[in-house]
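Weekly puzzle thread! Below is a chain. First person to post its structure in token form gets bragging rights.
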Amino acid sequence: MTETATPIRPTSQSAPAHTLSQSHLDGLESETIFILREVAASFEKPALLFSGGKDSLVMLRCAEKAFGVGRIPYPLLMIDTGHNFEEVTRFRDYRAEQLKAQLIVRSVEDSMKRGTVRLSRPDESRNVHQSVTLLEAIEEFKFDALIGGARRDEEKARAKERIFSHRDSFGTWQPKSQRPELWTLFNTKIHPGEHFRVFPISNWTEMDVWQYIEREHIELPELYYSHKREVVDRKGLLVPVTPLTPAKSSETPQLMDVRFRTVGDITCTCPVASLAKTPNDIVLETLTATLSERGATRMDDQTSEASMEKRKRDGYF
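Winning reply:
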């Protein structure tokens, strides 16, 4: 990150602020690369969950550094709700092609056709139903480890999870039966039919992610930066006006400068008001943010910690 404040003068007890920042990012990157290599060494059929969002793109940059272009030893797996932003899915394909990585896409719509996913109403968000499609993909390809981009700072249920999170043969997470991870030693033993969810950037924060994006010049879908968009204010959230999320008769759409802090299913992902057009602008905004990115922008996360924990036990990301 480019420092604008007066630099700290080096002494025997202090170092320049930019040096401390880079050292911190180097440490996080090194840990992530170690975990990515550990997965490759410990499991027979791992896959990296890749949505095209910023966290998975940061993880993919670390995988590129760990193994090299064209040498990532596991496929990229995308669970598509059918309601994802076109800019994100287009960028997903572009980045996979850049790295010459195998990309596997499985769709919630296919699960609906099979009857394994049934919506209670046509306009119901498909986001939570991704867990069914994911478990079906695990069974189809016999994956024994899935690498995800979840971070502990996102919300409380995620903060409870280990880096190597054991799942039983039903894909169930048992938070009270987690394995200790002392001295960065990971117990990766599993029985047939079981698998692990692995979270290499667990210890990163939203600020770390954006500083790393700036340092590494990581390309992102344009939705992450300020742009003009029609939105309506609904219970404190800026809901984008789209064919899937139209304005109600009582609402008046406004054209605003917004950006997305996280991108997911259109039916449950909201932008925030912002003029930030660069990673450095976003770093400065993040310094004053009072809500987590999911709490401020995800309609499906306006639930209790217990509800999110139940979703994770059922196989949610």
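Puzzle host: Confirmed. Bonus trivia for everyone else. Strands lie at 46-49, 76-80, 103-107, 145-147, 164-167, 195-198, 227-234, 237-240, 254-259, 272-273.
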